[in-house]
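Reader question, answered in our methods column.
A reader sent in the components of a multi-part assembly and asked whether the whole thing could be modeled at once rather than chain by chain. We filled in our standard form and ran it. Here is what they sent:
COMPLEX SIZE: four components
ENTRIES:
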Amino acid sequence: MKPEAIKVACSNCNLRELCMPLGLSTEELNRIDDVVATRRKVKRGTPLFRNGEKFTSLYAIRTGFFKTCIATEDGRDQVTGFQMAGEIIGLDGIVNDQHTCDAVALEDAEVCVMPFDRIEELSREVNALQHHVHKIMSREIVREHGVMLLLGSMRAEERLAAFLLNLVQRLHARGFSQSELVLRMTREEIGSYLGLKLETVSRTFSKFVEDGIVEVRQRHVRILDTDALKRIVNAQSCH
Amino acid sequence: MKPEAIKVACSNCNLRELCMPLGLSTEELNRIDDVVATRRKVKRGTPLFRNGEKFTSLYAIRTGFFKTCIATEDGRDQVTGFQMAGEIIGLDGIVNDQHTCDAVALEDAEVCVMPFDRIEELSREVNALQHHVHKIMSREIVREHGVMLLLGSMRAEERLAAFLLNLVQRLHARGFSQSELVLRMTREEIGSYLGLKLETVSRTFSKFVEDGIVEVRQRHVRILDTDALKRIVNAQSCH
DNA sequence: CGGAAGTTTGATACCGATCAACCGATGTGG
DNA sequence: CCACATCGGTTGATCGGTATCAAACTTCCG
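And here is the structure of the entire assembly that came back:
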């Protein structure tokens, strides 16, 4: 949990095109190196931050896989997202200067710590960075609109199909297979994200296997028929 | 629909403390007047912007009431939020330079048009404005987390109770009653937002009336027992 | 190796969707 | 101003999808 004082540079990071704006001048690139203060390793099962903690920084995921979730006093729990390399977490903390959700590593992970006051400072001077920050926040808002659509109007099969397609698409953008993936989260966590119980998630996986749409061996999933998944997502509740 | 060339000033707007940062110097206040280019009237039932339209501006609601919703090709439709005076809409458009949802006036409305490039320009110079923009976006993200919790884990009564409490709370912050409100949206729109069918919304209202928690006359709602509503929201799915 | 955690599958219950009928409010044109 | 059409809302009956409860199995990990 101890912050590690490794000095790092975005300018030669292979995730740069995911985290950072494109088309920067060399001078701007060098300045942007300053937004990352340190890196921090987070062990599997361990929180990067927790609900109620003071907000200081955004985090760019270098390696590993996170979930963010909110818990209420009465024991309810909702996974609000799964995040992978190149994605930014911590945006929830800006509004009240404290985090309103937990971010937990689902596998050993490493993040770049980006103090938010430094981001604000630098984005006053580098227009591309300013706009980039705005885009990242807007993207998160739009993503959540999609989740609301899913939770508000889709049935179990549609939700799981949409979930799988979204995951492979993001993994593919990072150079992984379009058809094979390893789930880093449990059935229960998938269920929490999708508004389903873990048994329903399990049953729906089984149904997809029966229908020859996917192969599932524990957390290893191979998608055999992407189009079938797309058809499931787009099929309106027929009648 | 024609933009009207009324020159307006945030500095003497009675909604300023809702839209704009607090604690500005007189000089900063005067500069901020420049973010509002024009005002625009929107008739009831008419869109302020639509999915796919080019994004140019954020809008601050001066009067009236809006819904934002996304529609899919296959006929699904999801209300993603209801917005009232002092709230900002259009944030979804930043990421891809085009809007990804429709914003429709539920009653005759007027908005302040704030060209986004001007916002970015000015927030490079006025730190308080910069941070304010970040807070507005973060607040929207946190709000959507709450909706995800609602859609993912609450039952019909809990959803409607949470919805009513949220509405009166926001209305109260604008000087309206804590216990009386007029719904500007139909049962169907409430249902879409809450992930329920209109019949279920209607039945749940009826149940609340039976239990003496609210009085309902069409769209006029009087809350008789706020604590009961709060208890309903916080009651975990018991077993 | 043993226990805990995670997953699958079955049986049953229940909440909300669906289908349908009716009612009331609103608004429009003759 | 009234007749009538339309839209929104309520209520009832029934159906279906997902939750719940339960048991067995597998995998993981100390």
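What stands out: The two ends of chain A are 54 Å apart (CA to CA). Confidence is low (pLDDT under 50) at residues 1-5 of chain A.
Send us your own complexes using the same form.
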